[in-house]
Design goal:
heterodimer, A: 492 residues, alpha+beta, six-stranded mixed β-sheet, B: 242 residues, alpha/beta, Rossmann fold, eight-stranded mixed β-sheet
Chain lengths: 492, 242
């Protein structure tokens, strides 16, 4: 989007730079002090100030004769619109030598009445923005009044009258008037500078506000569009998940169910090998079902749809039930499962089902990554003060004598779909979401997960859980982050 | 100057025989943009420059922008105005930055050389590119010169690191300690030279108004006190400093 052209991009006129009212006041004050009239015009000839003093009666008298009027008009138009150079009757002013440097462009224009004007261009940043017309004044070197050019305008010209009127016009040496004009020029420079600053500040303020507004509107529009898109996507995702979950689970349940019936001989006896095959179908079916449930879980967490429901629970039961659900798998693999519970039972609060899922996930991993003959140990601590949480709580430790995790992978293993060994030929299966779920649920309880491991020796996962999770924590259940780094295009 | 949908036009007014060259000093807050202009102002003959105008906001007295005009007439009688602007560094003044950047003929990007400032430099570099795009300025046509300022502070990048940064792009790179006047005129020279070359390519200054790069740079720098800078030999100072 393009904004309009800024005031910074165009030439600013003298009228815009000067504050009209205060400028007129300054000119008025100046005129009163020095008794010489001042007119200020911009470069298009528009009048910005016109303060007269002393010459009214005299000029009025001259103006009353037709020829006087004609000559007067010519002079006025010469000083107002004529060139600022040394032509059309203008000449260099008589000026003190030390004023010369500053008097650049100053010219004197004599009036046919014997009076005089001095003109000065208003220079600003190399531009001529307009001119100051100073006068008319009565030059001190004017000896023979009235000059023939005035007397000749009419036979009825009354010298005595004119002399009486001209006395009211300021009489001074041209050098003095020139110096006063230089003084005025300096004052103008200051006023233009102040005016420019004020003008630009105000204009820029307006422009910046409009620009900001435009920016915000544009951003709002984009946000709205994005919001709509996200809503659509979210709806699509929910629908997709529901469908997938239904469409996958329904046939899978049938596969498992029919396998089970086959295995149990409901459709007639099977020989040993057949039973083995059918049980494999069942096992793999269960694994697939769990995987689908986990994926659904993680999508629920990511969608922020998971609400933990806290209720009184028994940590002993939590550990025991998780361990017993893993027992068959451990047995089958030849891995010893040991449980160590504290001497006294205690009560806690938490989401029983989710925590069971947490411990089960850890146990599943432990059994999965521990070779035959290894040991998986589950330890439950007593209820004590937990410095990590700064509150009462307990720990559940799951230890194994498995393959271990390299230390530089400790952070990554909690990201969704992350596997330490992500090669296609990896030894261990799984989608890499178990630990992501663990972390989200534990943190949802206001707890933490710690990992310690040594490659080839085993791993230890420690859950530190508060006895009473704050209700704040469950709202903040954070989805596991998949670290995405923007490509580096830094110049510095 | 900008027109919708077309390439930025050169501010060349044949009727008034006038050429305006707009240079914008861009960069993070406190990187030394105003200091650069103050130094140029100090060293430039008063009769070829205007006052250094500093426009502040009404409310919080933070800087809006600075403006320093430098002007001269060419041998062929063309009036040339070089307008040096700074943008406000504060993050919230992005709208103003964009307005000031309108119609720029070249940009001097003032970066803080300290390693700790890299993130800020990068974010303003991105901001500059975004705002140029928003203003319809084509980075291929509007040259940028990078000044690595504050070379005297601890934690400043080494020469090798600056060399490294130079190689990352095509922009000329100048080291500076603006507060002591070091590198300021060299940056001005580089940015004016780039601006002239780009304008010459677009508007044929040499052909159309008989203004050569040499005359352009000489007209500016003969009125600037170059003593103690790398430009001293090219443009010997006419008036010795006090």
């Amino acid at each position: 989007m393009r904004q309009g052209e800024s005031v910074l991009q165009r030439r600013i006129s003298l009228g815009e730079l000067l504050d009209g009212e205060s400028f007129t006041d300054v000119v008025k004050g100046f005129v009163e002090l020095y008794k010489v009239g001042i007119k200020v015009f911009d470069d298009k000839g528009a009048k910005l100030a016109d303060i007269k003093v002393g010459n009214g009666d005299f000029c009025g008298y001259v103006f009353s004769f037709p020829e006087g009027r004609r000559r007067c008009t010519a002079t006025v138009s010469r000083v107002k619109d004529g060139p600022l150079g040394l032509s059309h009757g203008a000449r260099l002013p008589v000026i003190d030598s030390d004023d010369q440097a500053r008097a650049k462009g100053m010219v004197t224009v004599p009036c046919f009445t014997g009076l005089r004007y001095i003109l000065l261009p208003i220079l600003w940043e190399g531009d001529t923005l307009g001119r100051v017309v100073f006068g008319p004044f009565q030059p001190e070197d004017l000896k023979d009044f009235p000059p023939p050019s005035l007397k000749e305008i009419s036979e009825g010209f009354d010298t005595a009258n004119a002399t009486r009127f001209v006395e009211k016009v300021r009489r001074a040496p041209e050098t003095t008037i020139a110096r006063v004009l230089l003084h005025f020029a300096r004052l103008m420079q200051t006023m233009i500078f102040a005016g420019q600053k004020m003008f630009l500040t105000t204009q820029l303020h307006i422009e910046a506000t409009l620009e900001q507004n435009r920016d915000l509107e544009e951003r709002n529009k984009k946000l709205e569009e994005m919001n709509q898109k996200l809503k659509d996507l979210d709806r699509l995702k929910s629908a997709f998940l529901a469908t997938v979950s239904h469409e996958l689970r329904t046939p899978l349940t049938s596969i498992i169910g029919y396998s089970e019936m086959l295995a149990e001989g409901l459709a007639g006896p099977l020989n040993g090998e057949q039973v083995d095959y059918v049980r494999t179908i069942m096992d793999k079916g269960e694994t697939l079902l769990k995987l689908i449930s986990s994926i659904l879980d993680i999508s629920q967490i990511e969608a922020g749809k998971v609400r933990l429901s806290f209720e009184p629970m028994d940590p002993f039961e939590l550990v025991n039930s998780s361990v017993s659900s893993l027992k068959p798998q451990a047995q089958k693999k030849g891995v010893t499962l040991e449980t160590k519970l504290p001497p006294r039972p205690f009560q806690s609060t938490g989401d029983r089902d989710r925590l069971r899922q947490v411990v089960t996930n850890l146990l599943t991993n432990a059994v999965k990554f521990t070779p035959k003959g290894g040991t998986v140990r589950v330890l439950l601590s007593e209820l004590t003060h937990q410095p990590d949480l700064n509150t009462q709580g307990f720990r559940v430790i799951v230890e194994d004598s498995g393959v271990g995790i390299p230390a530089d992978q400790f952070d990554k293993i909690f990201q969704s779909f992350y596997q330490v060994d992500s090669s296609s030929t990896r030894e261990y299966g799984g989608a890499g979401i178990g630990l992501a779920i663990v972390k989200s649920f534990v943190e949802g309880h206001g707890g933490v997960v710690r990992v310690a491991s040594e490659v080839g020796r085993g791993s230890r996962f420690t859950l530190i859980l508060p006895a009473l999770p704050s209700t704040q924590a469950q709202v903040n259940i954070t989805p596991p982050v998949t670290a995405i780094q923007a490509p580096a295009d830094d110049r510095f | 100057m900008l027109f919708d949908g077309t390439l930025p036009d050169v501010q060349l007014n044949h009727a008034q025989r006038e050429l305006t060259v707009k240079i914008v000093y861009y960069g993070p807050g406190l990187s030394g943009k105003t200091t650069n202009l103050q130094m140029i102002h100090q060293r430039t003959q008063p009769d070829v420059r205007g006052r250094l105008l500093t426009v502040e906001t009404h409310d919080d007295r933070t800087l809006f922008f600075d403006l320093l005009p430098v002007f001269f007439s060419t041998a062929a009688g063309f009036k040339v105005k070089v307008k040096l602007f700074t943008v406000p560094g504060q993050v919230i003044h992005n709208a103003t930055r964009r307005i000031v950047l309108q119609g720029a003929d070249a940009v001097a990007f003032i970066a803080d050389s300290r390693r700790s400032a890299s993130a800020e430099n990068n974010s303003y570099w991105k901001n500059l590119n975004e705002n140029m795009r928003e203003n319809g300025l084509d980075p291929a046509q509007v040259p940028i010169v990078i000044q690595f300022n504050k070379r005297d502070l601890p934690d400043t990048r080494s020469d090798a690191e600056i060399e490294e940064a130079r190689k990352k792009g095509k922009e000329p790179v100048v080291g500076a300690i603006a507060i002591r006047g070091i590198g300021v005129l060299e940056t001005l020279f580089a940015v004016l030279q780039s601006a002239f070359r780009s304008l010459d390519a677009r508007a044929g200054l040499t052909k159309n108004i008989q203004l050569t790069e040499k005359e352009f740079l000489t007209q500016v720098f003969q009125n600037i006190d170059t003593s103690g800078t790398e430009l001293e030999r090219l443009f010997p100072p006419r008036v010795k400093p006090l």
